[in-house]
Amino acid sequence: YFNKETLLFLDGEWVNAQDGKTNLYSQTLHYGAGVFEGIRSYKTDKGVSVFKAKEHFKRLHYSAEKMHIKLKYSVEELTDLSYELLERNNLVDAYIRPLVYLGENMALQPTEDVHVMLCAWEWGRYLGDTQLKLMTSSFQRPNPKSCFVEAKVSGHYTNSILATTEAKQKGFDEALLLDMNENVAEGPGANFFFEKDGKLCTAPLGNILSGITRQTIFELAEDLGFEVVEKFFKVEEVYQADGAFFTGTAAEVAAVGSLDNHSFNLPWEKTMGYQLAKAYQNCVHTK
Ligand code: PMP
Fold first, then answer.
1. Is the pLDDT of residue 128 over 90?
2. Which SS3 state, helix, strand or coil, does residue 66 take?
């Protein structure tokens, strides 16, 4: 993720990534009480563009607010810093990771000592380019009555790590997690869509992260004349699907080939997901 030359932004200064230091009594390190984002930049005709920067930094503000963390940088300042970060590191097609973490305090109430870090690196498509073999996870997504599921909180990702690790150990590529009512929710780091008889379907908001890529897919589907239904559904409905895909900033639009070894009816190239994956690439490289 970094080498000798890499620079990152830390609390108002540009520091060498290898010299970046943190307090080992950090509340975030001990309890996971930190918030973060995952953003991508792309080469466009007009130069490098941070895709939906405003939406990402608004979500960072939302996440911080939910965790009672005072974030001192505005959406605009964070956007400008992202561009400076890319320029200082000579990056164009990159993944940007802003992290808001807390300083020294072992109590269970957020300290006022808030740190902001931004780093970036070149990162290929997170889930790769091959059709993913999914398994239904034995882990549920966090319950909205036990945390703010729409906030991107560091600690929430222990659930994701457990789910992905279980899937890989069982010979699958990735997990698909259910919500507390046994409806399909999302992946460990991506939202999930399936298609059946020319209609797309995805879980409604409530028990999932409100993905920015998910929203982009809604916009692109409308342009293409594809209907998207937001509803609760069970794994059995997915077993009968014609196709499926994950959406996320890191994963982009990732083809899913099967769930629990039930393959989908259509070859990927014949699906709406395939067309949306192409439209997404076009979108991020032109906006
Ligand atoms: N769900 C989860 C749990 C995630 O971690 C992510 C990645 N941020 C997503 C969905 C997709 O969100 P986005 O499209 O905003 O990257």
1. no
2. helix
d(CA 136, CA 174): 9
**Is 3.40.50.450 the CATH number for 7-121?**
no
Task: Indicate the domain borders of the chain.
Answer: 7-121, 132-284
Quote the ligand 1 centre to 188 CA distance (angstroms). Answer: 8
Nearest-CA residue for atom 1 of ligand 1: 190
Average of pLDDT values for 221-250? 98
pLDDT digits (tens, 9 = 90+) for 18-59: 999 999 999 999 999 999 999 999 999 999 999 999 999 999
Give me the active site residues, please: 152
Reported confidence tier of residue 129, pLDDT bands at 50, 70, 90: confident
Alpha carbon distances (Å) from 189 to 53, 77, 176, 177: 19, 26, 10, 10
Q: Residue 162 burial (CB < 10 Å; 0-12/13-18/19+)?
A: middle
pLDDT at position 16: 98
When pLDDT is averaged across residues 5-23 and rounded to a whole number, the result is 97
* Cα distance between residue 62 and residue 78, in whole Å: 14
pLDDT at 255: 98
CATH superfamily placement of domain 132-284:
D-amino Acid Aminotransferase, subunit A, domain 2 (3.20.10.10)
Write the CB contacts of 139 (distance below 8 Å, at least 6 apart in sequence): 159, 162, 163, 166, 175, 177
Going from the Cα of 47 to the center of ligand 1, the distance in angstroms, rounded, reads 26
| Mutational pocket test of ligand 1: of 156, 177, 213, the residue with most ligand atoms within 8 Å of the beta carbon | 213
Residue nearest to atom 10 of ligand 1 (CA): 190
Distance CA 222, CA 248 (A): 18
